[in-house]
Amino acid sequence: MLNIFQHYGNIVEVVIPAKRDKGGRRFGFARFDQVKDVRRFGIELDNIIIGRDKIFVNPPRFQRDSG
Fold it and tell me: What pLDDT sits at residue 18?
C-alpha cells in the first residue's frame, strides 16, 4: 500500500489491521500530510485497482487532535 500511495503525496502513516471487515474483506488506513485539494485527491485515489481489488476512499470526517 505504501508503494502505491507515495505517488500521491507525503505519507505519514499506513496501517493494515490483521482483522477483516464484516464482509471478510481486508482494509487499511493511510494518513497523508499537507493535501492541498482533498476532493481531487480522493477522486484520484478512488480509481486505484490493486490486483483484483478496487480501492475505496473515505476521507476523514473529523480533524485529528495534535496532542
Answer: 92
Among 6, 5, 30, smallest CA distance to 16 is for 30
Retrieve residue 65's grid coordinates. 487532535
CATH number at residue 29: 3.30.70
| Alpha-carbon gap, residue 9 to 33, rounded angstroms | 7
66 in any annotated domain: no
65 in any annotated domain: no
What's the whole-model pTM score? 0.63
Q: Give the structural domain span for 17.
A: 2-54
What whole-number distance in Å separates Cα of residue 39 and Cα of residue 59?
Answer: 9
User: Cα–chain-centroid distance for residue 19?
Assistant: 17
